[in-house]
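Slide 14.
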Amino acid sequence: MRMETPSIEFMAGRRIAGLLSIGLVFASLALLLINGLSFGLDFTGGSLVELEFGSEPNLQAVREVLMAAGFPDAVVQAFGAPTDVVVRLAQDNAPKAGDEVFAALEQAGYSLELLRSEFVGSAVGEELREQGGLGLLLALGIVMLYVAFRFQFKFSVGAVVALIHDVLIVLGVFALFELDFDLTVLAAVLAVIGYSLNDSIVVADRIRENFRIIRTDDPLKVMNTSINQTLSRTLATSATTLFVLLALLFLGGEMIHNFALALTIGVAVGTYSSIYVATNTLLALNISRNDLMVPEEEEETD
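Slide 15: predicted structure.
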């Protein structure tokens, strides 16, 4: 049995949605300027040492041992289980700093096991940070060219505005809670761009068709009809994706926690932006049937 197309007046709340989006974007920009991103080891350089203690350690006591051993700037944090600890060291420490941390704590009487020791040079970290930023800009530029080629320039502006909206909100959440931003999170942000673009293209394709089919000059009616026609597909895709991401978020462990969190926020915000941000942008650009009409070729006269 075929389901009936809903008739929800999405565009009736476009002004509230627009104010909400503008507020979230400016709040995210403010957080990025004030707090900044807490770049992980991949971008800052330095050493990361993951240790498993025989029993739950006193983190302050661990810091004092490391300070006495010559690591005054060591950052000691709990990681996952109560017995797991991560030690982050500044980028000027040697690649073998992990072994030295392990030896210092072992000599202090702790029963522990070295699970992981990583070192990234400062030059490599800076290069990764620059390349990651360029990658984001390149992705947005390619998206704009693709949508402009497939649809029309106004659609490309709407799609890119929606993508920038989604990326800034994800980054704003990470800045607000000072969560580690590493290569896995950058990969999640790029995945968010792809997911949000796919959603926006589905809606844009239906809007283009309806502008040609529905004989009306009222863009609000066309937008509402298009969103309602694609709503079941949008919600089904988003819901199934979120189920998987929530499983990874709560059951996947600390290693992929921030990756899953960034994707979860991005999918939720991307679903909203494909309904409101992209369409609001098209309305602001005064999209009309004339923008989508194929220009007629003039006949040559002798």
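Speaker note: Strands lie at 38-39, 46-53, 75-79, 81-89, 112-120, 180-181.
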